[in-house]
Amino acid sequence: MLADRDGATDVRRGGDLLGIEGMSRLLEPLAGRRRALAREAQTALLEWGDGPIGDDVCLLVLRPEALSST
Protein backbone atom coordinates (compact mmCIF):
# COMPACT_ATOMS: atom_id res chain seq x y z
CA MET A 1 0.00 0.00 0.00
CA LEU A 2 1.47 3.33 -1.02
CA ALA A 3 -0.59 5.73 1.10
CA ASP A 4 0.53 9.29 0.30
CA ARG A 5 3.75 8.29 -1.42
CA ASP A 6 4.48 7.53 -5.01
CA GLY A 7 7.28 5.57 -6.60
CA ALA A 8 8.78 2.11 -6.60
CA THR A 9 11.10 2.94 -3.69
CA ASP A 10 8.03 3.73 -1.58
CA VAL A 11 6.56 0.22 -1.84
CA ARG A 12 6.11 -1.31 1.61
CA ARG A 13 6.26 -4.82 3.04
CA GLY A 14 5.19 -5.01 6.64
CA GLY A 15 6.66 -1.90 8.21
CA ASP A 16 9.63 -1.81 5.81
CA LEU A 17 10.02 0.70 3.01
CA LEU A 18 11.81 -0.65 -0.07
CA GLY A 19 13.96 2.48 -0.53
CA ILE A 20 16.92 3.00 -2.86
CA GLU A 21 19.12 0.36 -1.21
CA GLY A 22 16.32 -2.19 -1.22
CA MET A 23 15.55 -1.48 -4.87
CA SER A 24 19.23 -1.98 -5.71
CA ARG A 25 19.30 -5.33 -3.88
CA LEU A 26 16.01 -6.39 -5.50
CA LEU A 27 17.23 -5.65 -9.02
CA GLU A 28 20.85 -6.80 -8.61
CA PRO A 29 20.11 -10.39 -9.73
CA LEU A 30 18.80 -8.96 -13.02
CA ALA A 31 22.05 -7.16 -13.89
CA GLY A 32 23.41 -8.16 -17.28
CA ARG A 33 20.12 -9.46 -18.61
CA ARG A 34 19.16 -8.03 -21.95
CA ARG A 35 15.77 -9.45 -22.74
CA ALA A 36 12.64 -9.09 -20.69
CA LEU A 37 14.48 -6.95 -18.14
CA ALA A 38 11.60 -4.51 -17.62
CA ARG A 39 9.08 -7.33 -17.19
CA GLU A 40 11.33 -9.19 -14.72
CA ALA A 41 12.02 -5.98 -12.77
CA GLN A 42 8.29 -5.24 -12.57
CA THR A 43 7.54 -8.78 -11.40
CA ALA A 44 10.23 -8.57 -8.69
CA LEU A 45 8.85 -5.24 -7.45
CA LEU A 46 5.23 -6.41 -7.39
CA GLU A 47 6.15 -9.64 -5.59
CA TRP A 48 8.17 -7.76 -2.94
CA GLY A 49 5.32 -5.54 -1.77
CA ASP A 50 2.54 -6.45 0.64
CA GLY A 51 -0.24 -6.29 -1.88
CA PRO A 52 -1.36 -4.72 -5.08
CA ILE A 53 0.20 -1.36 -5.90
CA GLY A 54 -2.65 1.12 -6.15
CA ASP A 55 -0.92 3.23 -8.77
CA ASP A 56 0.79 2.83 -12.11
CA VAL A 57 4.20 1.21 -12.34
CA CYS A 58 6.62 2.83 -14.74
CA LEU A 59 10.11 1.46 -15.37
CA LEU A 60 12.82 3.02 -17.47
CA VAL A 61 15.45 0.61 -18.75
CA LEU A 62 18.61 2.10 -20.23
CA ARG A 63 21.35 0.24 -22.03
CA PRO A 64 24.61 2.17 -22.34
CA GLU A 65 26.35 2.13 -25.67
CA ALA A 66 30.05 1.44 -25.93
CA LEU A 67 32.21 4.55 -25.94
CA SER A 68 33.74 5.34 -29.31
CA SER A 69 37.52 5.58 -29.55
CA THR A 70 37.45 8.93 -31.37
Summarize the helices and strands and which ones pair or pack.
Elements: E1 12-13, E2 16-17, H1 19-27, H2 37-48
Antiparallel strand pairs: 1-2
Description:
With 70 residues, the chain is mainly α. 30% of the residues lie in helices and 6% in strands. It has helices at residues 19-27, 37-48; strands at 12-13, 16-17. A two-stranded antiparallel sheet has the order 1-2. A hairpin with a 2-residue loop joins strand 1 (12-13) and strand 2 (16-17). The chain is elongated, with a radius of gyration of 14 Å. The mean pLDDT is 78.
Brief write-up:
With 70 residues, this protein is mainly alpha-helical.
Features:
two-stranded antiparallel ribbon; mainly alpha; single chain; 70 residues; 6% strand
Question: What's the helix count?
Answer: 2
**Would you tell me the overall average pLDDT?**
78
Q: Assign an overall shape.
A: elongated
Largest sheet strand order: 1-2
Alpha carbon gap, first and last residue: 50 Å
The Rg value, from CA coordinates, equals 14 Å
Which runs of at least 5 residues are low in confidence (pLDDT < 50)? Answer: none
Using DSSP, what is the number of strands?
2
What fraction of residues sit in β-strands? 5-15%
Query: What is the string of SSEs from the N terminus onward?
Result: EEHH
SS-derived structural category: mainly alpha
Largest sheet: 2 strands, antiparallel
User: How much helicity do the residues have?
Assistant: 25-40%
